[in-house]
Amino acid sequence: MKKLVGAGGFTPDGPNHFAEHLRTDSLSVGTYSIPAGGVDDQAPHHEDEIYVVTAGRATLVTPTGTELVGPGDVLFVAAEEEHRFTDITEDLALLVFFAPAYSGR
């Protein structure tokens, strides 16, 4: 068992901040933080992702649609799918689950 203390909390460390909390062969978990008014500059990933919004408000834009998101929302983004958080009106904190584990770019 492992307890992830502080996971999902907003971290004001630069324009965008990703902190990995756990890594196994099959998945990884981290927190992605984007400040209000910030720009999400991520590229598509090789892994499936689940985002859990823990704080803030924004819009998630993908080729298949646009969703307003806020605390408690859970979002699935398939591997290689273009996606971006826009219109970040409140500091945004997201728990991010990658499967398999995030390989980076």
From TrEMBL:
Domain of life (superkingdom): Bacteria
Cited InterPro entries: Cupin_2 (IPR013096), RmlC-like_jellyroll (IPR014710), RmlC_Cupin_sf (IPR011051)
Domain Cupin type-2 residue range list: 32-96
UniProt name for this protein: Cupin domain
Organism whose genome encodes this protein: Kribbella antiqua
